Amino acid sequence: MTNDTYRHKGLRRQLAVLLKEKGIEGAEVLKAIEAVPRHLFLNSSFIERAYEDIAFPIGSGQTISRPHTVAFQTELLELKKGEKVLEIGTGSGYQTAVLLEMGVKVYTIERQKALFDLTKAFLPTIGYNPKFFYGDGYKGLPIFAPFNKIIITAGAPIIPDALLDQLKIGGILVIPLGDKVQIMTLIKKVGPKKFEKVEYGEFKFVPLLEDKEWGD
Ligand code: SAH
Questions:
Q1: Nearest alpha carbon, ligand 1 atom 11
Q2: For a designed S-S bond to 101, which of 1, 32, 74, 176 qualifies (C-beta 3.0 to 4.6 A apart)?
């Protein structure tokens, strides 16, 4: 890959070690973090700090999540190769790339046109090919449902019903729930209308916006 040097690879290895120290246990998840060239997802002014565990602005008022958050959500999904995963909030595409490194098929939705266009053009140039959709993540993708796993990468006030409907029985949905801070929440679908919930710690995300709030 162009612009990916031994130095960057070394920094990524250190990042994987740091995430392990912070409690990420899955070897596959750490391998995926080691594989994705995060510096290429950032505005060039942040490139030097790409492998620190911090979030960065990516334009349109949005952020690329911290590597720890990306790894944490990825780990909660318990991904198996070949699974169909729906991602809400494509953003920079970094989380998308990490999911693809886990060997799953990714359907990703973004509601900001500028970000959608940018990421749809960029990701394939570094070898990542999810299915891209411009639209409202609250609605999911009914025609491609059901999904084995669903990940929401923006802070949501509620769990959208449409997404619960589009989850396979036995499937897992991971969503940061809340307004100013979010509680990482895992929902397992155990029956057609039956769900189990587990809550993890506090995280901080940009908001998942509804139709009426779309200003762009
Ligand atoms: N996973 C991204 C993080 C993106 S931040 C990354 O790794 O870079 C959250 C993203 O969710 C933003 O790009 C925002 O525009 C998008 N978003 C917010 N509300 C949405 C909605 N209703 N549907 C789809 N995307 C939405």
A1: 89
A2: 32
